[in-house]
Amino acid sequence: MSAGVLYVVATPIGNLSDASPRSLEALRAADLIACEDTRVTRTLLARYGITTRLVALHEHNERAVSERLLDALRNGQSLALVSDAGTPAVSDPGAWLVDQAHHAGIRVSPIPGPSAASAAYSASGFDSVQYLFIGFLPAAGSARRKALEALHLPWPLVIYEAPHRVLKTIEDLAEQFGAQRQIAIARELTKKFEEVVRLPLGEARAWIEADAHRQQGEFVLVVAPGARKAEATVDPDAVLEALLETLAPSEAAKLAARITGLPKNALYRKALARRK
Ligand code: SAM
Question: Is the pLDDT of residue 61 over 80?
């Protein structure tokens, strides 16, 4: 008996009409659908009259359930993998099962479609050959700020964020990249109250606070690329290191900020860390 196929199926990120004909065909034809929350996937299936059996596969049971699903695939059954919204394994469960399928020699076939990251990036207007998909930053403030320090890059950054953390993250972004850097905020994409705005980071907080609804819903933040010039010509760490040989951290950070164009606060924190 030949092995079945693992279809990795993208589903809508809000508007159920975004389900592609091919994704619906795959969900209808599969022997089983592995999904995160069966209630969420049932809503999509009900809309299109699909009755395929569901199996819950989420971050807490992914490894155990994957073993059973791999057995089914080896026995010739075909499986569709979906997540609650968007593309599976993109900041969502699924990568473990896909990895194991490759190891087992099972054919893996993507059915492409919606993803909040590509939807937000496409609407950002930041013109770049590359962009960096960050997904979720660390939830804890200090870890998040540290992660951002490593992201002074000449590419747009695509960040997923939860509504209750969006203001804090925007403040951290403004501190790290400066108030003038542009950000695109994509909120509730494809849904009734969708909003996409582009503005300087220094104005983003006021924009969110201008409407109580704007601290709810789902967000993707796309940060404009950093300047290439500073990165190509000076190494901020080396500049700081040299200045710290003779100057106090606050003075060194002030001068390093003038030389590199990077925010003073971030350099000051680096200077303090180096002094320890
Ligand atoms: N796998 C999904 C994808 O391909 O887009 C992402 C799943 S991740 C767990 C959920 C995050 O995606 C949300 O916290 C939000 O940052 C973003 N997101 C999902 N749907 C969205 C929407 N309709 N509008 C804006 N952001 C969305």
Answer: yes
